[in-house]
């Protein structure tokens, strides 16, 4: 076991389990990549005022033909919504593609191919994913709040603001993933995969700080969104109310999706060990739940969020025209 690498001595004895083709290779990774492809196609089509994916009935605004076919002409999607959704999806796509390749190779060989080097690579992209995904999800909720509250005039909704904020989140997450190269501890082999060493003071503290900071920011954004909905003009009240419900539901999912990692962190704080204890199977559950994000998050932000925010913007334009 090298410096900053925890439980790497178990890599030589690792044998891929027989149902790895089912979980995580088929579900959720294969399904996730298919879903991501559909969402990316919808983003591409929407730039030309067309739909690849249908707009769900609960997202339809008054006067919009929610029953239109996916090829029907619709108002062109605001490019800033597409841009924000793509930034949020980047880490999900990277994680899904890298994991399905590495998991398939390991399953085919019934071993952890590449041992410590491959484990390092996986730990880097897994760590980048965790810290970027939490930050980007919070960014999406906050951006949704600003669109509902201020609409097209929101400073955060400027193209430059979206790019700077999203790129900063990605850059910080990558830097955090590379901390072991600076002599800081470390990465770990967690039963079937490699990740940041959550059973160590550095990454445990960083993860909990990022998670609870995101929870606070999201909670504040939801409260402010609810207040904006309560004072919305009649024409935009319904789309804004729907957008708020979507943001609240998305926030609840994100809380559930990451809570098991929080539990692992607190178990380590309380007991001093998780991987080497009777609770080691929790890492397997964590892997499936986190991989489910690659399926769910693109649908939430790349499909539902985009259409909900678009409905808010269109209804706000109607309110402005009527006021004039």
Automatic annotation (TrEMBL):
Keyword Nucleotide-binding appears in the UniProt entry: no
Which domain of life, per UniProt? Eukaryota
Where would you find the membrane-spanning parts of this chain? 20-45, 83-107, 127-148, 160-182, 202-223, 244-270, 282-305
> Which Gene3D superfamilies would you find in this protein's record?
Rhodopsin 7-helix transmembrane proteins (1.20.1070.10)
Q: Which UniProt keywords apply?
A: Membrane, Transmembrane, Transmembrane helix
| Name this polypeptide is given | G-protein coupled receptors family 1 profile domain-containing protein
Indicate whether Membrane appears among the record's keywords: yes
């Amino acid at each position: 076991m090298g410096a900053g690498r925890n439980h790497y001595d178990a890599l030589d004895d690792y044998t891929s389990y027989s149902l790895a083709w089912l979980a995580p290779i088929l579900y959720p990774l294969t399904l996730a990549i298919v879903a991501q492809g559909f969402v990316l196609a919808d983003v591409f089509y929407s730039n030309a005022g067309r739909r690849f994916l249908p707009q769900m009935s609960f997202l339809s605004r008054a006067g919009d033909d929610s029953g239109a076919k996916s090829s029907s002409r619709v108002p062109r999607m605001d490019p800033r919504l597409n841009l924000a959704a793509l930034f949020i999806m980047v880490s999900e796509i990277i994680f899904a593609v890298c994991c399905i390749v590495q998991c398939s190779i390991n399953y085919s060989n019934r071993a952890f191919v590449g041992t410590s080097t491959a484990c390092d690579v996986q730990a880097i992209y897994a760590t980048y994913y965790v810290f970027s995904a939490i930050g980007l999800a919070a960014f999406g909720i906050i951006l949704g709040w600003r669109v509902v509250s201020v609409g097209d005039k929101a400073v955060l909704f400027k193209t430059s603001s979206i790019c700077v904020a999203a790129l900063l989140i990605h850059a910080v997450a990558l830097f955090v993933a590379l901390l072991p190269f600076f002599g800081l501890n470390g990465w770990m082999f967690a039963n079937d995969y490699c990740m940041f060493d959550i059973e160590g003071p550095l990454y445990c503290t960083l993860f909990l700080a990022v998670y609870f900071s995101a929870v606070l920011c999201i909670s504040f954004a939801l409260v402010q969104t609810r207040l904006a909905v309560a004072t919305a003009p009649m024409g935009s009240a319904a789309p804004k109310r729907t957008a708020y419900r979507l943001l609240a539901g998305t926030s609840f999912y994100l809380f559930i999706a990451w809570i098991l990692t929080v539990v692992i962190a607190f178990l380590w704080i309380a007991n001093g060990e998780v991987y080497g204890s009777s609770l080691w199977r929790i890492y397997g559950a964590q892997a499936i739940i986190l991989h489910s994000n690659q399926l769910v998050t693109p649908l939430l932000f790349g499909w539902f969020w985009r259409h909900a925010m678009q409905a808010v913007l269109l209804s706000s334009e109607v309110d402005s025209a009527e006021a004039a």
